[in-house]
Amino acid sequence: MAVELQGGRVRLRPVSDSDIAALAALAADPAVSHWWGDNDEGDIRMEVSAPRATGWVVEVDSEPAGLVLATEEPDPDYRSVELDIFIAASLQGRGLGADALRTALRHLFDERGHHRALIGPAAGNSRAIRCYERVGFRPVGVMRQAERISGEWRDVLVMDLLAGELR
Questions:
Q1: Mind listing the domains of the chain with CATH numbers?
Q2: Distance, CA of 90 to CA of 67 (rounded, Å)
Q3: Which residue, 39, 42, 65, 85, shows the most beta carbons closer than 10 Å to its own?
Q4: Which residues contact 34 (CB under 8 A, 6 or more apart)?
Q5: What is the pTM (predicted TM-score) of this model?
Q6: How far is CA 86 from CA 8, 91, 98, 128, in A?
Q7: For the chain, how long is the longest CA-to-CA vector?
Q8: Collapsing DSSP states into helix, strand and coil, what is residue 50?
Q9: pLDDT higher than threshold 80 for residue 1
C-alpha cells in the first residue's frame, strides 16, 4: 500500500482513480510514449492496480508530474523491488526523476525491507540511464529485444542498486 512520501523537490502520493486521466495524458506525450509506449487510462489503471504493485503520483508544485511504479517481490529470500517511472516531458531534465526515485527507494529500503532494486530502461534511452546512474543504479546486462513499443522490438538495459549504494 502506498503512503505519501516527501522528496527534496517532489512529493509522492498514492494514485487515486481521479489521477488516472491526468497520468494517461502525461504518458501520451510523444516524448514519454516513445519510451513508455501507448498507454491509455485502462493501461495506467491496470499498471497501478497489479498485484504486488505500488503506484505513486509524482507531484511538483501540487500538480501531477509523473508516475513511479514499484513491483515488490515478497519472498524473503529474494526480497527486491522493480521500478518504473515517467516524468512529464515539460519537466524532464530537471532532476525530478532522480529525486522521485531516491524518495521511493528510501521508503522501499528502510520501511519495506528490500535490499535490492531493479530498473529496466530501453537500452537507447540515454537520458533515463544517466538519471538512474545518478541515483546509484549500475548496468547488469542487456536483454535483447525484450520489449515491444509501438510495434518495434527494443533491447532493455537491466540495472540494479543495493540498499547501501543509494546516492
A1: 5-165 (3.40.630.30)
A2: 14
A3: 65
A4: 149, 150
A5: 0.95
A6: 18, 10, 11, 9
A7: 41
A8: coil
A9: no
